[in-house]
Amino acid sequence: MNNNQLPMTNSARSVGSLVIGNWLLVVRCFRGTGSPACVRVTRRGFTLIEILMALSILLLGVVGVYAIFAVGLVNHKRAVDNTTAAVMAGSIFDDIAANYDIYYFDHNRNGRPDLSEDVNANGVDDWFEPDSTGRFRYPIPRRRGYRYEIRYERGIDVPQELFVTVRIFWEAQGVERAESFHRTVFIKNLEAIDG
């Protein structure tokens, strides 16, 4: 025994030989001897159960994200429809203020513009009906997929005052939706126009 070496007990010898034996096995496997011990040591990977568990966890995450995405799309469509209806209503209010005497007059005082009434009784307001060439008769605000009704109430105290309600309709997910908008419009010579 050298002065540099410590005395080995039986348990230390077995551990030392185990380490040396494993090291020799690794060296033999690295050289590619193909011994059965080599195959057993170098086999690495995942079992089928581990793969199935990982895929099921991934699937749960993807389904959750997809559900959130679908709800987001529905809410986005609803917001776009409501915004479109609000912009359209604002356009209609402005057009009423500018062109009341041309397209929006109410001579018969029934609370609706005369040109919007269904005179031919086909279930479609006349200004939404195209003529024989396929063009609309009146240049009023319109958008594909949306239709609207206009109702008037006259002011009692101010003769130029007209309370206008625009109800806009559209179809979303197979159901007809509607939104109402209200504004007071002042028309010069309202009494003279509606005579």
Mean pLDDT: 80
- Strands of the widest sheet, in order across it, are 1-2-3
The termini sit apart by 129 Å
Largest sheet: 3 strands, antiparallel
- Tally of structural domains: 2
What's the order of the H and E elements? HHHEEEH
Extended strand count: 3
What assembly state would you assign to the polypeptide chains in this entry? single chain
3D shape: elongated
Helical residues, percent: 40-55%
Continuous helix count: 4
Determine the strand fraction and express it as a percent band: 15-25%
Uncertain runs: 8-18
- Derived structural class: alpha+beta
Radius of gyration: 41 Å
Summarize the structure.
The chain is an alpha+beta fold. The protein is built from four helices and three strands.
Characterise this structure.
- By secondary structure, the protein is of the alpha+beta class.
- The chain folds into 2 domains: 11-44; 76-194, no CATH class.
- The chain is 47% helix and 17% strand.
- The protein contains 4 helices and 3 strands, in the order H-H-H-E-E-E-H.
- Strands 1-2-3 form a 3-stranded antiparallel sheet, with helices on one face.
- The radius of gyration is 41 Å and the shape is elongated.
- 10% of the residues are buried.
